[in-house]
Amino acid sequence: xxxxxxxxxxxxxxxxxxxxxxxxxxxxxxxxxxxxxxxxxxxxxxxxxxxxxxxxxxxxxxx
Length: 63
Known about the structure:
3 helices, globular, 0% strand, single chain, Phage shock protein C, 57% helix, mainly alpha
């Protein structure tokens, strides 16, 4: 069976992007969110937010 990356409907805080990434890689979505927050705070804020927004636009929502 072929896995696809979707925005999560069940693990959603904002738009389900990070929840979908966590489900795809079979890791806790909370861990993905924490990693995203750390990366955002350590690096520049704007590129991370733009990346999240682009992922929101590109990733289809889970069926």
